[in-house]
Amino acid sequence: MNLANIVQKRKTFAIISHPDAGKTTMTEKLLLYGNLIRSAGTVKGKKSGKFAASDWMEIEKQRGISVTSSVMNFPYKDYQINILDTPGHDDFSEDTYRTLTAVDSVVMIIDSTKGIEAQTIKLFKVCRMRGIPIFTFINKLDREGKEPFSLLEEIEEVLDIETCPMNWPAGMGKSFLGLLDRHHQQFVQFNGNEAETYIPMDELENHSALVSNPTFMEAREELELVQEAGDAFSLESVLAGKQTPVFFGSALAPFGVQTFFDTFLSMAPPPGTRKSTAGIVQPESEEFSGFIFKIQANMNPAHRDRVAFLRVCSGKFERGMDVQLARTQKHIKLSQSQQFVASARDTVEEAYAGDIIGIYDPNIYRIGDTLIGGKQQFEFDELPQFPPEQFRKVMAKNVMKSKQYRKGIEQLVQEGAIQLFKQYHTDAFILGAVGELQYEVFQYRMKHEYNVEVLFESIGERIPRWLSDDQIDESLFDERNMLVKDREGNPVVLFKNDFSLRWFIDKHPEIKLVDLFEVNHYSQG
Ligand code: G4P
Predict the structure, then answer these.
(1) Local confidence band at 60 (pLDDT 50, 70, 90 cut-offs)
(2) Which helix (H) or strand (E) holds 25?
(3) How far apart are CA 481 and CA 494, in angstroms?
(4) Of 372, 398, 418, the domain-final residue
(5) Which atom of ligand 1 is nearest to the CA of 26?
(6) How far away, in angstroms, is 220 Cα from ligand 1 center?
């Protein structure tokens, strides 16, 4: 098989959702279809603690949070699947956002009883910023939830994206009958725990029990309305991230999941091109290239090892191959490489564009690093910076340890574990994070790896806005709307709340404030 064919078969995606919408349940079903597990309930021991006893970072063990399923690779039908986990419970962090720089598409799960929730909005913004195609699965149809029309309206209004239902539910909860599958022109009957049955649309009239059921008839009328008044399906719009195909179903039952998965795979894009300093890199190009989007430290405390997660962007990765780290132009032999199947880590011998592999990191990689083979010379475009939400001043408990303290901060910040800001004039260190857990991890690692105890002083949740150097009038800012510098020295204002932000915009329309979520739209090549 040639490289182009191999690449076409790869589907690399993430599942995004608000906690408890059903991401784990869905992932388990997909692994079940991929014959990776025999029964559901074995992916991660979120509640049972099954895999929490593995050798990953102590703090995660303590919190019962599992990172063992960061990436899963498996073959399914004709495809090679790479699913990336987007940690979402207490471990929501910049890593969660950054994972989305390494995928070609996204499955968004929405709980039909709740609608769009906070974390879904945040993750969705990152997808839109990067122009990633989004496929929506509205879950928990076996429960009484919101009306399908109002769910679609919510997606369109809150997320500002066109929706196109691929199927339509007949009833929900106790009266759930099944799905009118628009895409395959069939009715998929829900039989409780029994297998699904399929009735072609043009044979429905032969099923008198169905066509005399008011719930079913209502669903048919609604579907007609959707067909007449709704947006027509456009794969082009889907691939441009402007329309989302919507599938209803139940991950738990499971119902409609396999059809969803198959349809999703048939539409989801294969690995795409990527921008670099030498122009666009094609996934079918013969020469190997890839970039690092996540570094997991201390997966095994006994060895202090670090694993860097690499997305292959072109060519063929072979274990033991010689590559160049573009930032330092140093040559590295990639002899320790892993792929991840549920909780297990296997050695990977070869990988292609779209694949995600773990490589041993002897403390030389940084997030965003480019690895290239052959005689190539380029770096991929920098990964975007994501706006943190919480901020804390940080200091060393013992001032005598300031050297280790600075070294520790510098390394952990470089690793992308947390973001560093400095207050104007005082130069006080301020740490910005997306999730609470990042502070705990930071504190823990400073203590155990650098032997420094740190103290925090919270300045609460803030809304960061970047502004240009020439627009700084320091007299406009104070503790409430605090002026700080980011790592590169760019000025940033940490607004106290939405009200302060709006008041400021009103008063000073001449000052251009930049929301990182709104920049870099469709920036990938
Ligand atoms: P997450 O990874 O997105 O956080 O969600 P997860 O899959 O863990 O699901 C959250 C809860 O919702 C679980 O129940 C799960 O069983 C339930 N759930 C998922 N999909 C469906 C569905 O289609 N229908 C219904 N009725 N429930 C669903 P739990 O009681 O919190 O956990 P568990 O003890 O059952 O694991």
Answers:
(1) very low
(2) helix 23-33
(3) 6
(4) 372
(5) 7
(6) 29
Ligand 1 center from residue 4 Cα (angstroms): 39
Burial of 352 (0-12, 13-18, 19+ CB in 10 A): buried
Rounded to an integer, what distance in angstroms lies between the CA atom of residue 436 and that of residue 443?
11
- What tokens appear for 40 in the block? 């559901």
Residue matched to tokens 């901060």: 409
Atom number in ligand 1 closest to CA 28: 7
Tell me, yes or no, whether 193 lies in a domain: no
Q: How far is the CA of 21 from the centre of ligand 1 (A)?
A: 7
CATH number of the CATH domain containing 419: 3.30.70.3280
Give Cα 468 distance to the centre of its chain.
Answer: 29
Which atom from ligand 1 is nearest to the alpha carbon of 255?
Answer: 23
What is the rounded distance in angstroms from the CA atom of residue 345 to the CA atom of residue 55?
12
Q: In a 3-state reduction of DSSP, which class is residue 19?
A: coil
**What's the burial of 185, exposed, middle or buried (CB within 10 Å: 0-12/13-18/19+)?**
exposed
Closest ligand 1 atom number to CA of residue 250 = 23
| Domain match, 399 and 475 both | yes
Residue ID of nearest Cα to ligand 1 atom 26 = 140
- Cβ < 6 Å from ligand 1: which residues? 17, 19-25, 47, 139-140, 142-143, 250-253
Q: Per-residue pLDDT averaged across 168-179, rounded?
A: 95
Q: What HEC string does 362-408 produce?
A: CCCCCCCCEEECCCCCCCECCCCCCCCCEEEEEEECCHHHHHHHHHH
Secondary structure class of 440 (helix, strand, coil): helix
CA angle 177, 138, 35 (to 5 degrees): 85
Asked if residue 64 has pLDDT above 50, the reply is no
Residue 363 and residue 420 in one domain: no
Question: If you take atom 21 of ligand 1, which residue's CA is the nearest one?
Answer: 252
Pair 325, 396 in one domain: no
Query: How far is Cα 471 from Cα 361, in angstroms, rounded to an integer?
Result: 41
pLDDT tens for each residue of 367-383: 999 999 999 999 999 88
What is the whole-number distance in angstroms between the Cα of residue 15 and the centre of ligand 1? 15
Structure tokens at 500: 């302060």
39-45 contact pairs (CB < 8 A, 24+) = 42/342, 43/69, 43/342, 43/343, 44/68, 44/69, 44/343
pLDDT value for 500: 96
Contacts (Cβ under 8 Å, ≥6 apart) of 517: 125, 126, 129, 386, 387
Domain that holds residue 500: 390-524
Calculate the average pLDDT of the chain: 87
CA of residue 25 to ligand 1 center, whole Å = 6
For residue 275, the one-letter residue type is K
Ligand 1 atom 31 nearest Cα: 20
| Residue tagged 């049972």 (tokens) | 48
Asked whether residue 400 falls in the same domain as residue 261, the answer is no
pTM exceeds cut of 0.85: yes
